[in-house]
Amino acid sequence: MSAMAVRARRLALLLLGAAGTAGLLWLFGSQEPLWVSAGWVSLVPWLWVLDRATSRRETVLAGVAMGCAFNAALFGWFPGALQSYSGAPLAVCWLAFLVLSPFMELQFITFALTRYHLRRTAQENPRGFWYVTLTGALVYVGTEWVSPKLFAVTLGQGFIASESLRQGADLAGTHGLTLVLVIVNVCVFEAGRALLARGVREGSRRALAPAAVGAALVLACFGYGQFRYRQVTALEAPKQELTVGVVQANITKYEKLAAEMGTYDVVRMILDTHYRLSAELLQNRKLDLLVWPETVYPTTFGTPKSDAGAEFDAEIREFVSRAEVPLLFGTYDLEQEREYNAAMFLGPGRNGALERSAYRKTMLFPLTEWVPELIDSQWLREQMPWTGYWKRGPGPQTLALQLGGGRAITVAPLICYESIFPSYVAEEARRGAELIITLSNDSWFSGTPAPKQHLMHAAFRSIETRLPQVRVTNSGISALISPTGEVLAEVPDSHRASLAVTVPLTPRVPTLMVAWGDWLGPTALVLSAVLLLAPSLLARRKARPAA
After folding, report:
1. How far is 437 from 277, CA to CA, in rounded Å?
2. 187 φ, ψ to 5°?
3. Of 117, 96, 114, 95, whose CA–CA distance to 106 is shortest?
4. DSSP-based three-state secondary structure for 531
5. In whole angstroms, what is the distance from residue 345 CA to residue 322 CA?
6. Closest listed residue to residue 358, CA positions, set 374, 340, 372, 381
7. In 373-426, at which residue ranges do the beta strands (DSSP E only) sit?
8. How far apart are CA 460 and CA 176, in angstroms?
9. What are phi and psi of 452, to 5 degrees?
10. Is 119 exposed, middle or buried (0-12, 13-18, 19+ CB in 10 A)?
11. What is the DSSP letter of 519?
12. DSSP assignment, residue 333?
């Protein structure tokens, strides 16, 4: 066989392995209970071709191929959404997506290189398998934590479909679930390789240790999950309940509507729709709080830019006073010519006046909402007219909401993209939040898996903090999420509806994630560096002549 034919065969095997793993991860990431078990073996096809690599070049290529296949399988909807938002040709969006994929999924490359290096330097060590496995998994998690990502995706998030397995996120977040998943996959792979390569008797003996460790980790995850689930659900008898009205009007693409109808008519339509849906709720239930989604009022509130804006502001205040229900809604907040994406609260105050407070979004989506000052320029604005002008808020905060009748509640407010950042939400929980309220606008991703994936992120934030969550979006998926990550009620994607949800406010349950934040990522980065450097440092020390 010619050298070119050999290279072509190796490349075909490499792509086949990456495609096999991407397919299993697609099933695992579908959030269906039927496919949860696929996660435990999802990396095996890629590990098979990875360990057949004969050079660092092939190893890097295997990592690049896996990164591209992974992103295409889980985020193949994103180029189309980007094309819809920016107007760029779809082919250009796909090209940019694939070019950036290896950088956004850098953990596949660093894991591959670590495994390639350590399997050659540690193979004579009887404990080499455990050293290679643990170091590789820590490198994977550490790299994933430090590398840039748009959606903070990690493999362990696929366990959201398992009532038991997802509970482990309160220890080390979704990165902790990923660490276990990577280790178990390597154990399955090594056990299978031993059985295939060494015959039944010798193979069984060599496969016993990795198989036993993998099984023990899986059972430990199930055991902890069941224990924690029962502990948290045992507190379901609430010390008090909160009735929250959720409005999802399914009005999307404000800019397009404004170009067709005019800005005034669009704002008029949006507000009238929300007034009507809210009134339908109030006819049947007494609400403690009413929540509208992100940027539902698409202009500045409290600092109007026109006479029409002042009239709309007064109208919203009048609605709250007349309905006698506090309102939390998405709008813009203006201060000294700096504009913020904000959540505005209007509620009962002294002497019949309304109390007003605001939370300003800090974690803005790159370019579409915010451009770093370092790269902001007139040229960039001309080339990308869809870039955003919002400024960043001051960081994690809580809002103390007065609900009437002397009642009050401290909430952790989140706006859209912020729900994917574990440490951000944990900081708000440390500040005494009793409830997470998320306002979001997922309309640009409607009809894709994105709303479901965004809901999954939100559910993990409730698990990590053990706080209930009310999530309100303009087009879906609005939901009530329990402290165990269960979606108790929802309004599906692309539906118009109003919903009253009863939120049980249970006693606080301490978690490691609230205490330490997203601690595993940086810890894994440091530990992996120590494990990689320690052998060479020890060898140098032994090689030094005695004084």
Report:
1. 19
2. -60, -45
3. 114
4. helix
5. 16
6. 340
7. 399-404, 407-415
8. 12
9. -70, -40
10. middle
11. -
12. E
- Residue 263 region by backbone torsions, left for phi larger than 0, else alpha for psi between -120 and 50, else beta: alpha
Distance CA 301, CA 309 (A): 8
**CB within 8 Å of 82: residues ≥ 6 apart:** 88, 93, 96, 97
Q: Is 315 helix (H, G, I), strand (E, B) or coil?
A: helix
Write out the DSSP string of 222-286: HHHHHHHHHHHHTT-S-SEEEEEEEEE-----HHHHHHHH-HHHHHHHHHHHHHHHHHHHHHH--
CA–CA distance, 94 with 81 (Å, rounded to integer): 11
Residue 229: what residue type? Y
- Tokens read off for 237: 């008898």
Return the structure tokens found at 138. Answer: 């820590």
Contact status, residue 135 vs residue 118, Cβ threshold 8 Å: yes
> Which helix (H) or strand (E) covers residue 290, if one does?
strand 289-291
- The total number of residues written for the chain in this structure: 547
Both tokens assigned to 260: 């067709």
**What's at 397, amino acid-wise?**
Q
Give the separation between CA 23 and CA 4, rounded to whole angstroms. 28
Q: Which two tokens stand for residue 481?
A: 């999420």
Instruction: Please name the amino acid found at residue 445.
Output: F
Alpha carbon distance 221, 162 (integer Å): 11
Q: What is the pLDDT along the chain (547 residues), one digit of tens a residue?
A: 566 666 777 777 878 888 899 999 999 998 999 999 999 999 999 999 998 888 899 999 999 999 999 998 888 888 887 787 777 888 888 888 888 888 889 999 999 999 998 888 765 554 578 889 999 999 999 999 998 787 888 999 999 999 999 999 999 999 999 999 999 999 999 998 888 876 666 777 788 889 999 999 999 999 999 999 999 998 866 667 899 999 999 988 877 887 888 888 989 999 999 999 999 999 988 899 999 999 999 999 999 989 999 999 999 999 999 998 999 999 999 988 888 999 999 988 777 678 899 999 998 877 777 777 777 777 766 666 667 778 888 999 999 998 877 788 999 999 998 999 999 999 999 999 999 999 998 877 777 888 999 999 999 999 999 999 999 999 989 999 999 999 999 999 889 999 999 998 888 899 999 999 999 999 999 999 998 887 766 666 666 665 4
User: How many whole angstroms separate alpha carbon 97 and alpha carbon 365?
Assistant: 16
